């Protein structure tokens, strides 16, 4: 009997366990449902990457990918009935919205099983636990157990794994993949992901442990958007890593962080938009006209702090932001401007190509001090010192802040500010003191 393979965050054919499971049932129809609710909440760059990935997946399937728009709980049962599907196969989604959606689809399918095989993670949420079965709240012990739990080798699947049903003969309303017309600085699709990963392993990986924090160097893999949409699986990445190599160990640690934050969101779904540590709910934040002006200046990269402004302009212009710079600009918003982390997290999700609810929200909460681990609420990044350390020559600043390209000192530690570049919108020393006062006024508890 035929089977339906419903693609979501797994837009590839290699290393795809759900594809292998579907192919064992018989002929396979490949489909993607463009959910209007997710479409409306996605930034234009994410929609562009999604659309580009779907077009390339369709090419890899020789035009046999059915893309349709509608509510999955309506579309999937209808398509399954039209082909007489024995089952609907998916990679499991652990995010709050995905979990609710899949429960609705499973109920609407009735006697047709919704079969979950694999997930977007090396170690799926819920598998790494303490001895008593409770979840980890701190990353380092999670990391140790994560290594012990381990993961499988990449699944041996590809375009040749199934006999694909041509959807052209089905009475289903098609739609074109999204195409907002945005130019991206990263190429979508499985072939691009595999090529970029090989280039990284052959080149920058051996320097990753030293270079990953340097904003002025191309020391990262740029796999984040590919992992977000599943054009490559983290198993494929891990399979090429030698744990004896410091760069490989550092990269595996970042993959573990990705799994950790997915696990945190799965265990505490309300933490998508609320403080994971409710002890910080009473923290004082700024409102009013001045607060809005400062938020707008932060978004536009007009704070008068060169390293912050470089990051915010890179984000606005490309939809990507170096991870170290993400932490610095987040700390600045929360602890120098005293604005809620949710506002910054929302802006990131609107702008980022790789915007992922688990990584984004919990990364922001780490910076705000209200997330997991020993909450570093007392850690306030000095934006000038961070720039000096991770962009020592100022090349990153010069690239993204043209007003400072001719400056002898792009960090502006001394000398006059170039004409046209704003003065600092706040005094970092004073705001650091104020931030600590506000944090110490609440009594965090976990």
From TrEMBL:
<dbReference type="InterPro" id="IPR036134">
    <property type="entry name" value="Crypto/Photolyase_FAD-like_sf"/>
</dbReference>
<keyword id="KW-0274">FAD</keyword>
<dbReference type="InterPro" id="IPR018394">
    <property type="entry name" value="DNA_photolyase_1_CS_C"/>
</dbReference>
<dbReference type="Pfam" id="PF00875">
    <property type="entry name" value="DNA_photolyase"/>
</dbReference>
<dbReference type="InterPro" id="IPR036155">
    <property type="entry name" value="Crypto/Photolyase_N_sf"/>
</dbReference>
<dbReference type="Pfam" id="PF03441">
    <property type="entry name" value="FAD_binding_7"/>
</dbReference>
<dbReference type="InterPro" id="IPR014729">
    <property type="entry name" value="Rossmann-like_a/b/a_fold"/>
</dbReference>
<feature type="binding site">
    <location>
        <position position="208"/>
    </location>
    <ligand>
        <name>FAD</name>
    </ligand>
</feature>
<keyword id="KW-0157">Chromophore</keyword>
<feature type="binding site">
    <location>
        <begin position="254"/>
        <end position="261"/>
    </location>
    <ligand>
        <name>FAD</name>
    </ligand>
</feature>
<dbReference type="GO" id="GO:0006950">
    <property type="term" value="P:response to stress"/>
</dbReference>
<keyword id="KW-0285">Flavoprotein</keyword>
<dbReference type="GO" id="GO:0006139">
    <property type="term" value="P:nucleobase-containing compound metabolic process"/>
</dbReference>
<dbReference type="InterPro" id="IPR005101">
    <property type="entry name" value="Cryptochr/Photolyase_FAD-bd"/>
</dbReference>
<comment type="similarity">
    <text>Belongs to the DNA photolyase family.</text>
</comment>
<protein>
    <submittedName>
        <fullName>Deoxyribodipyrimidine photolyase</fullName>
    </submittedName>
</protein>
<dbReference type="InterPro" id="IPR006050">
    <property type="entry name" value="DNA_photolyase_N"/>
</dbReference>
<feature type="binding site">
    <location>
        <position position="251"/>
    </location>
    <ligand>
        <name>FAD</name>
    </ligand>
</feature>
<dbReference type="InterPro" id="IPR002081">
    <property type="entry name" value="Cryptochrome/DNA_photolyase_1"/>
</dbReference>
<feature type="binding site">
    <location>
        <begin position="220"/>
        <end position="224"/>
    </location>
    <ligand>
        <name>FAD</name>
    </ligand>
</feature>
<feature type="binding site">
    <location>
        <begin position="354"/>
        <end position="356"/>
    </location>
    <ligand>
        <name>FAD</name>
    </ligand>
</feature>
<feature type="domain" description="Photolyase/cryptochrome alpha/beta">
    <location>
        <begin position="1"/>
        <end position="122"/>
    </location>
</feature>
């Amino acid at each position: 009997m035929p089977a339906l393979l419903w693609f979501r965050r797994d837009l590839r054919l290699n290393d795809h366990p759900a594809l292998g499971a579907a192919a064992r049932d018989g002929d396979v129809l490949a489909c993607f449902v463009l959910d209007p609710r997710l479409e409306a909440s996605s930034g234009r760059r994410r929609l562009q990457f999604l659309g580009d990935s779907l077009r390339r997946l369709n090419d890899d399937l020789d035009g046999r990918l059915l893309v349709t728009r509608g509510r999955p709980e309506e579309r999937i049962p209808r398509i399954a009935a039209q082909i007489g599907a024995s089952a609907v196969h998916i990679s499991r989604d652990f995010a709050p919205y995905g979990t609710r959606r899949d429960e609705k689809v499973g109920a609407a399918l009735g006697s047709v099983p919704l079969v979950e095989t694999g997930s977007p993670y090396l170690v799926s949420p819920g598998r790494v636990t303490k001895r008593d079965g409770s979840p980890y709240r701190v990353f380092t012990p999670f990391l140790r157990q994560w290594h012990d739990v381990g993961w499988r080798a990449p699944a041996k699947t590809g375009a040749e794994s199934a006999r694909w049903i041509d959807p052209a003969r089905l009475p289903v309303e098609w739609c074109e993949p999204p195409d907002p017309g945005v130019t991206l600085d990263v190429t979508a699709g499985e072939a691009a992901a595999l090529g970029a990963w090989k280039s990284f392993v052959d080149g920058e990986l051996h320097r990753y442990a030293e270079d990953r924090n340097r904003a002025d160097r191309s020391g990262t893999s740029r796999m984040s958007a590919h992992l977000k949409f599943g054009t490559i699986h983290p198993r494929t990445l891990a399979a090429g890593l030698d744990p004896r190599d410091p760069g490989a160990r550092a990269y595996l640690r970042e993959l573990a962080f990705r799994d950790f934050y997915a696990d945190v969101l799965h265990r505490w779904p309300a933490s998508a938009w609320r403080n994971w540590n409710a002890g910080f709910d009473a923290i004082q934040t700024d409102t009013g006209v001045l607060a809005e002006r400062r938020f707008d200046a932060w978004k536009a990269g007009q704070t008068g702090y060169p390293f912050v402004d470089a990051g915010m302009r890179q984000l606005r212009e490309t939809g990507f932001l170096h991870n170290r710079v993400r932490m610095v600009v987040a700390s600045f918003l929360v602890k120098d401007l005293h604005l809620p982390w949710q506002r910054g997290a929302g802006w990131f999700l609107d702008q980022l190509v790789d915007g992922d609810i688990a990584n984004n929200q919990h990364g922001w909460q780490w910076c705000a001090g209200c997330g997991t681990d020993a909450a570093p609420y007392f850690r306030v990044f000095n934006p000038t010192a961070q720039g000096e350390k991770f962009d020592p020559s100022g090349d990153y600043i010069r690239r993204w802040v043209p007003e400072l390209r001719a400056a002898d000192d792009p960090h502006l530690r001394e000398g006059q500010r170039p004409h046209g570049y704003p003065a600092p919108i706040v005094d970092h020393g004073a705001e650091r003191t104020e931030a600590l006062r506000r944090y110490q006024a609440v009594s965090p508890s976990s």
